[in-house]
Amino acid sequence: MNRTPEPELMQSPSQVRAYADADFSKSDSMVVKSLEKYLKKVGRTFNKTDLIFDMACGPGNISERIAKNWPFVNVVGIDGSKEMLNEAEKKLSKKITKNLSYQLIEINSIAKGETHFPFKADVIVSNSALHHFHYPYRFWGALKKLGRTKCIHVHRDLIRPTSEEKAFEIQEKHLSNSPEILKKDFYASLKASFTVDEVNQQLIDAGLSQLEVFQVDELYFEIIGCT
Question: Is Chaperone one of the keywords (predicted)?
Answer without folding.
Answer: no
